[in-house]
Amino acid sequence: MTAYHFASTSVLDIGYLEWNPRGARTAVLVHGWPDSPESWRGVAAPLAGAGFRVLCPALRGFGPTRFRDGATMRSGQLAALGRDLLAFLDALALRDPLLVGHDWGARAAANAFGLRPRAGSHLVMLSVGYGTNDPRQAIPLQQARNYWYHWYMATPRGERTVAQDRRAFARQMWDTWSPLGWYAEQDFDEAAAAFDNPDWAAVVLHSYRHRWGFAEGDPAYAADERALCPAPVLAAPTLVLHGGRDTCNQPASSEGKEGFFSGRYARQVLDGVGHFPQREAPEAVAAAILRFCAQPG
């Protein structure tokens, strides 16, 4: 079993994995849905080898992370994920870290910069285009079709599936978002263990329902919601990595986002890769991150 460390914030006890604790620079890698911190293992090792201290926290509702108060709303709203990440950085007194996120984690990292412009040194987003905080956003019909699981979770039937058949539901995503045969059985089992968190179903359902205006947010994040919608322009140097065969968020969904960034911005499409680049092509992801961070400006 992977050994987790813990950092406490006002809301959560956050479990995290760590590589190279004495690294001169810090990288925080945030997983997506449906996945776990272990998804970063293949990226964390080369970053650690390049001198980074690498931390991979478990999102609220995942793995060993727990709410500290039973009365706290089990919100999955994107503003809360961004605020959680900032609280994690503060709890560990991390200065100027590289923030890397996949899927939910990419949204959390971008929103952390939206709430605190100097949250870190660089932003790297995997499989997600920025500017998607507004439930009124326009999306093409093909992308709406890809988001069938969002709408499904807004129904009572979807709620039952998430609560009672979560592993089969998550496996459906793993089997259809990337080219067939991309993962080993033990990798899915390891990730799915993170879904056994007692708050997983509540956080997941609220996240997707709130994202499209089907559920109210936690009032504690009302000011953060106003700060993030419409999406603010980000000054952090930003790299977007998107799989060319991603059938969850189509590669086109991250195109044309340059206007959201006032600093250096780059986007790279990874040929033959689906929705989970850090798992499918970890060497290419790590190399792209290190190249980007080595460039001036």
Key features?
Rossmann fold; 297 residues; alpha/beta; 12 helices; globular
Helix/strand layout:
Layout: E1 5-8, E2 12-19, E3 25-30, H1 41-49, E4 52-57, E5 66-67, H2 78-91, E6 98-102, H3 104-115, E7 122-126, H4 141-146, H5 148-152, H6 156-164, H7 166-176, H8 185-192, H9 200-211, H10 222-228, E8 238-243, E9 265-270, H11 277-280, H12 282-294
Parallel strand pairs: 3-4, 3-6, 6-7, 7-8, 8-9
Antiparallel strand pairs: 1-2, 2-4, 2-5
Explain this structure:
The structure is a single chain. The protein has 297 residues and is of the alpha/beta class. The chain has one domain (5-294): Rossmann fold. The protein is built from twelve helices and nine strands. Strands 1, 2, 3, 4, 5, 6, 7, 8 and 9 form a nine-stranded mixed sheet that branches. β6 (98-102), α3 and β7 form a beta-alpha-beta unit. α1 packs parallel to α12 (282-294). The protein is globular, with a radius of gyration of 17 Å. The N and C termini lie far apart (41 Å). The model has no long low-confidence stretch (mean pLDDT 97).
